Amino acid sequence: MVSVDVVSQDQNLINILVLKDIYPWLKKVNSQSLQQANKNLDNAYQRFFKGLGDYPAKKLKKKQHFSFQVPQHSKINLTTSEIFLPIIGWIKINIYRPLFEPEFFETNIKTTTINNEIIVEKDLNSEFLRTAKVSRTSAGRYHISILTEDLKKYPVTQQYSESTLVGVDVGIKTFAAISTGENIDNPRFLNKSIKKLKMLQQRVSKKIKASKNRKKAVNKLAKQHQLVSNQKNNFQHKVSLSLIRENQAVAIETLNIKGMIKNHKLAQAVADSAWSSFVTKLDYKVQWFGKTILKIGMFEPSSKNCHVCGYHYSELTLKDGEWLSPSCNTNHDRDINAAINIKQFAINNLITSGTEVRACGVILKRESSKAGCPSFKMGSSR
After folding, report:
1. CA 161 to CA 287: how far, in whole Å?
2. Is 157 domain-assigned?
3. Three-state SS for 7?
4. Can you tell me the distance from the alpha carbon of 164 to that of 358, in angstroms, rounded to the nearest whole number?
5. What domain range includes position 21?
6. Does residue 155 form part of some domain?
7. DSSP 71
8. What is the pLDDT of residue 235?
9. Residues 245 and 353 grouped into a single domain
10. DSSP secondary structure string, 111-180?
């Protein structure tokens, strides 16, 4: 049994004062940011001792990626696109996402107009602006994310039917197959950049450690990785948004991605597809639009079952893109057939059973039945 000592805020403050005497450069840092960093460290150790996380990693000053939080006293100038941070002052920023909804602007945000410039300040009543987090990526780009009070009212979950529900099967050759018969090609951004990444990595390994040339080479490598990541995110945002807008409900299969990555022959292709990130985007977008996502169990034989006659083709392998059902002579595209089966599974075991779904996410799992027939259970995905 490991005992956990809770450190008081006063003790944390004493620790910070001691550190300032040891490291004078800390006196130039915003005191609230230091307190927040100390709280984060304390929370990390608490989680470690409770078995909820790994041992806290050291935060090295030389690391390219870092972040810090500014809990209070941040201001935003909407006219000049600037943000004010304590100690640092006003910083020019590029606002690429709207900070607030127009209907909440006048009622929830306190503004000050100075020299025809609109400055948004923290409203002590609504506390709309809360914490500003400054982070630097490995590629050397700085981002500021602002935690605000969630004033947006999400729409009520819409009812759906067989005609407004689609099944989605994600894969490697085809990123996503839709039950409507559409195949969305996998762009394979990592595979397209792999040669350049290897070349940049080789250049890094040939440079002298701690040299300026090595830092430049590392920065170029990080920028290329960032480019691949941005391409994946942009592609997945477009696909997920299109699926949610065009349909009332989306059924998708859950996959054991960690287990698949252990297969060294598939690891790179699976990582390049980033299915987990895609499902995460679907999860929160169904809340935005009042839609529903249905997740079926990973052990359902969606690819091996004929959606026409139900014949189970046990000899199907990963190399087979198409197969012919000997029972009904129907030629199947492997991925489209799987997407149709995923949709039918959701329909047969949710809609036809008379179960009313109001949650944004539902997980469908198969359970064994004493009578020998399959039964199903429904659970929340959150």
Report:
1. 18
2. no
3. coil
4. 16
5. 1-41
6. no
7. -
8. 95
9. yes
10. EEEETTEEEEE--TTT--EEEEEEEE-TTS-EEEEEEE---PPPPPPPP--GGGEEEEEE-SSEEEEETT
If one counts the domains in the chain, the total is: 3
Helix, strand, coil fractions of the chain, as percent rounded to 5:
40, 25, 40
Give residue-wise pLDDT tens across range 235-245: 999 999 999 99
| Residue 152 exposure: Cα atoms within 13 Å on the Cβ side | 12
**Does residue 98 share a domain with residue 34?**
no
CB 119 within 8 A of CB 76: yes
For residue 101, tell me if it sits in a domain.
yes
Q: Is the pLDDT of residue 164 over 90?
A: no
**Is pLDDT of 163 > 80?**
yes
- In whole angstroms, give the CA distance from residue 322 to residue 41: 53
Whether residues 23 and 129 share a domain: the answer is no
In a domain? residue 131: yes
Model confidence over 210-243: pLDDT tens digits? 899 999 999 999 999 999 999 999 999 999 999 9
149-160 in b/e form (b: 16+ CB < 10 A) is: eeeeeeeebeeb
Rounded CA-CA distance 367/354 in Å is: 19
How far apart, in Å, are the Cα atoms of 328 and each of 179, 222, 341? 20, 53, 16
- Domain identity same for 171 and 202: yes
Average pLDDT over residues 316-339: 84
Query: Do the beta carbons of residue 339 and residue 178 sit within 8 Å?
Result: yes
pLDDT tens sequence across 35-64? 888 888 889 999 999 988 889 888 776 676
Q: Does 219 share its domain with 250?
A: yes
**pTM tops 0.90:** no
